[in-house]
Amino acid sequence: MTGFPLPAELAERARDLIAGKIAPVPPRDAATVVILRDGPEVYLLRRKATMAFAAGAYVFPGGSVDVRDTDHAVAWAGPSPAEWGAVFRADEQLARGLVCAAVRETFEESGVLLAGPDPGSVVADTTGDDWEADRLALIDRDLAFADFLARRGLVLRSDLLKPWAHWITPEIEQRRFDTRFFVAVLPEGQRTRDVGGEADQVAWTRPGEAVERAHRGEIFLMPPTYRTLSELAEYASVADVLAAPRDIVTILPKAVEIEGEMRLVTT
Hints:
267 residues, 8 helices, globular
């Protein structure tokens, strides 16, 4: 159990937490989606250096659950919120919010929309000024996801998502998220955007190549992203990823003192 050494500021906070001098910040529920295409390749965004959380890190599209993501008015096709709740050990309302947030945030940050006119189809093209206006309205929270789908006559396709992981930000962090990870295949005909609102660069890359670049210090990956990419690198095709069995276990890295040094370990 070696873990990652903590910088001085986080090490001091970790000691204060262990001593009971301060309390951890409650995590916010969030969803992240790994978009895949043949290769297999994954879609990554580099967060702007000015971001308060994970500045400069390469991440998958995702974000916090909006209270409106739990709206029962969201048109739905595929496994029910109750079924998703069983997978992620969440109540039905939270599960609904997580899946809606996954689809909404993916569209906001990549332009990929996991929805279609009916339960058996997917939107073929999300480019154009009208789609961009809706995407920006969703980002600004001027438009609810349920209203967006209803106006376009679309249903959310929860069957296009596969559960992958569950990570909770360590208690030493002051911005924390309780994040469920999904994987999804880029729908035929759709294209990702070049840049998302919180990103200054995007890339399609093989998972193993991203891990190797992180080892060389060329890119920064947070532990959940690194672990996910390392796992995906074991599969030869998108079909293999989708067919892989997954037992969703909650991962909460913890700060421990090892030989006088505070380190972050993942069990």
